[in-house]
Amino acid sequence: MKSLHRRLAGLSILWLATLATAARAYTTEPMSDPEALGFSSSRLARIAAWQQTQVDAGAFSGAVAAIARNGSVAYMQAVGFHDRARTIPLQHDAIFWIASMTKPVTSVAAMMLVEDGKLDLAAPVHQYLPELRDMMVAVETTDPASGQSKLTLEPQKRPMTVEDLLRHTAGLDYGIAGTKVGRLYFKSFHGQAGVFRRDNTLADFVSALARLPLVHQPGEVWDYSLADDVLARVIEVASSQPFDQFLERRLFKPLNMVDTGFFVPEAKLSRLVDPPAGGWGGPPDSVMADVTRPTRLFSGGGGLVSTAADYLRFGQMLLNGGELDGVRILSSATVRRMTTNSRPPDIRFAGFASGLVGPQAGSTWGLGFAVRSDATSSVVPGSVGSFSWMGVSGTYFWVDPAEQLVVVQMIHMRGGSGPFQGMFRHLTYGAFHVPEHGVTAPVRIDAATLAAYAGTYAFSSTSSRNKQAPNGDVHGFGGLGINLAIENRQVKVVSPIRGMPAARAGIMANDIITHLDDEPLQGLTLDQAIKKMRGPVNTSVRLKVVRKGVEHPIDMSIVRAQVRVAGVGADLDVTVRDGRLLVEVSGDLPVLDFEKGAAITVAPMSSNEFFVDGGDHTRLAFLRDATGKPTRLVLNPGPWQITGQRIN
Predict the structure, then answer these.
(1) Closest Cα to residue 151, out of 187, 184, 175?
(2) pTM attached to this predicted model
(3) Out of 3.40.50.11690, 3.40.710.10, 3.30.300.30, 3.30.9.10, which CATH number does the structure's domain 2-94+307-341+349-430 have?
């Protein structure tokens, strides 16, 4: 433990810069002038307008969004309705079931006990929960003749640790996948006879878990799971307190999170937002089905309710390096450790959330948070090092230390909230104000020059604060279009991406890629394998593939193509009409002054430079290649520029 504290202390200096915001009392009341915090008021207003379109379309009944920067709230807005019948306008203090946004809270609670010296990250979980000592590991195999699958059990290579619980490498699962062991998990915890009910306890849950096998060997696979519920029980044992009391006394009360807990008391029920049509699913007395009455099972993975203001305070504490309003929850070194990569380099990603975390998603996992790690392939905008998580109910938050930003969105919906999270992030970063530069009086440009600029320009980002491709050139990167995994030290194809070079060349799921350009791939980490697959667009690579049922390895040559990251970037259409240059967004994502369905005339400053005479005065500069053809469009040239590449 002493060595752990020394390592944490050594990191503390990295977080000193964030502590300046903690000197004064933190209020969640929005400032009257968001421009003072670096935002464009007109572009912030796009958030509510977009959310209203989703309310009108029936995606969700209402939303509360909050954005804080530099320790002050720039935006706090409620849109839509409190109830499914759409009769009660939604208010800022609405209470939402936050589902898996409970997990970061549980992780913070665990690390508080680590700092107290009552919990050891390296200790086996069975040190605190002896009933989990002898869990076996399930191995599912399929008989090639009959096609029937069966489970065999093998002992653990090493026991799960407390750190495994925090980083989802404990060998557990959620029971959502359609495997045999997955069905066992679902039946035991979430089915009609499952123990995940409000009249049971965390001790009951752990006892039921002890009768099941693990899904993976501890430490080998990242699989989003029930680990935080096990962690909550560990916290109870280590602290000698019920989990709800520990959170209330050590976290919620000190942070003034007055509306956060495991149920909504009667006096506040009028502020609880209706669940979506059809409810949350599951048995009527399950943990998530009814938060209107007290519970005995304090789910560390998804049991809490909260408000945008409360969670904003939680996020600000993390951004401040573990402190808010003079109350220290964690050391800055501990927060830094929690929000940086914790996964071993050879980890395999599995489960339904593996598309959100891992090198192919441009992110990694800390101790309780997803962390943006790769600007090129990230599926969300923001700074490298920003950390986040979400809930199945639609709730979402992230913290961006580089921009001193804390953002929360609260909605209630059943699954599929990813597009709403992505759009919200794009709109937030797109609302950053760009310092204006002086513009000269408009000049005249001949028709031929104007006509040469007409075309579509692809942007990898919508904000200078969001870098999602090298030099801001394109929407993606050169690659083969393969979802990969590492199994038994081999590079395995999970699936080829439809329409991409690998799929067209005949790569199939479960293929093993043994060589790339005659270089063996065995023993590479997933990060290393993905890096080798990527490269400049239109370059060729040779693959050697081993396929089940095929006697000899298959040799194939594949040409890399541009891989566009889903939901990233935007296109601008430039046209000429009546001797004027017009710019309009192609698609739903706005870019600075430009939106879909609203072509803006830009005024010429020189033969290749233009500006928007109004709004936020976006400036444009067209760049030509060696042949003189306009190939790039730069918005706001200078330190805050965004560069787009002409695609037609």
Answers:
(1) 184
(2) 0.86
(3) 3.40.710.10
